[in-house]
Every structure is written in structure tokens, then in C-alpha cells.
Amino acid sequence: MSAQTNIHPYTVIEKGAELGVGVQVGPFCHIGPQVKINDGTRLYANVVVMNDTTIGAACEIFPGAVLGGTPQDTKYHGEPTRLLIGTHNIIREHVTVHIASVGGDGTTRIGDNCMFMAGAHVAHDCQIGDKVIMINHAVLGGHVHVADGAMIGGNSAVHQFVRIGMGAMIGGMTGVEGDVIPYGMVTGDRASLQGLNWVGLERRGFTPVQLKDMRRFYKELFEGDAPLAERLAAAQKNWGDNELMKPILDFVDTPHRRSLCLPG
Prior knowledge:
The chain is 16% helix and 26% strand. By secondary structure, it is an alpha/beta fold. The protein folds into two domains: 6-143, Hexapeptide repeat proteins (UDP N-Acetylglucosamine Acyltransferase, domain 1, 3 Solenoid), CATH 2.160.10; 201-253, no CATH class. It has an eleven-stranded mixed beta sheet with strand order 1-4-7-10-13-16-19-22-25-27-28.
């Protein structure tokens, strides 16, 4: 990529926008006056960047994407909010990401090294970690938190205020109404927990011994007739000092406005 900023003559960049070194902007884009685009990012064509939006370095943004749009929230009445996008993200065709609404900290955030495939939607106030992948036409409601390394399957929908734990996997065409534990795998018309994301854990370098322990831990926490609170207390006693299990235990033990996705 050229180190020189290159703007196509058929694009519109409004006064006040800030573009870094080596930014490439193709034809028929529209960049608003509050927008900041950092070094080496490329907008291919027909991209709209609106409102108070900052895009990190070395991102690729494909035709038809709209970033920083006004929230689809009837509570929003023009309050000053923003969208922050990290570095090295791939944003494919017709992806939409909105600035924040009211009721949060005023910022929609996307981390680094994420991929948003064609037609994906990130609503207001979402907080997206690093290395997250959203498959084609996956959608997130407002205030959803997605931790590092999670994968959201194609044509799936995540309800407002849901938490998706790190390394979790949402199956395609799944409706997610509850929180998904770290490394959890959920599927279904209304999502239910199907186990842990074993393939993802292997790819992260977990050893066979660690995976065996995690299977024992999962059965202890999520299988059996005792109430979840009793199973959680037992698992905390048996596994609370284990670095692999602690993120799941902490996630389950943290009060939140959505219930957990549990085995069907």
C-alpha cells in the first residue's frame, strides 16, 4: 500500500475530517466532518462514515459499509456519542455499525483484528473485543458485549444487553437471548448451551490433559439435578484456583440482567 494518502476525485470528504498517512479512499465515499481515519486504512468504494467516528490504522472497509450511523433507538435524540474502531479490522460489504445511544458510556467500541462479513450489524453501545468474527448477516442488539476471540454465526441474532464470553461460538441461525459462557457453544432457534467450543480450544493451544479437565469441569457445573447455585458452589470449591476454569466461574457468578444460556 502506498505511503501517500490517495483520495479519489469522486469522493466527498467534509471539512474537519482527519485522514492519516497512506489512507486510500475509493470513489463515491462520503466522510463526515467529525471522522478520523488513521494511517494506512483503505475504503474501497461507496463507503459512508458518519458522526463522531474514529477508525484505527490498517483497516479494510469494503463497498456499501456504513459506519457511525445514528442509533436505531427511540431514546436517542441527537446526544453527542461516538464510535471507536481499532486497528487491522476487515469490514466487508454492507456492514453497519452505529454510534452509541443513551444509557451507556457514550461509546460503541470495536477492538483490533476483527472481521465483519457481509451484511453484519453492530448496534449502539456494543463493546466488541479483539479477534472477533461475525459471519454474514449476523446482528447484535444494543449494549451487547462480545469478548475476545468469539465467533457469531451467519444469520444469527443476539438480544440487547447479552454478554458473549471469550472464545465462545454462536451457531448459524441462532437466536441468543441469554449470556454465553466463555468458550461456550450455543445453537438453536432460541439458543441453548451445547457444550464447549472444543475446536476453538484446540486451536488456542489447549493440551489434551487440559481439555480432559475442562470436560470434567463442564459436566460438574452444567449437568445433574442439583440447582445451578449448588453446582456453582461445588465447582468453585473444586476448580476455583484453576486458571482455565476461573473465567467461566467468574462469568457465571457475575450478576447480570440476562440469564445464562444453559443446556436444553
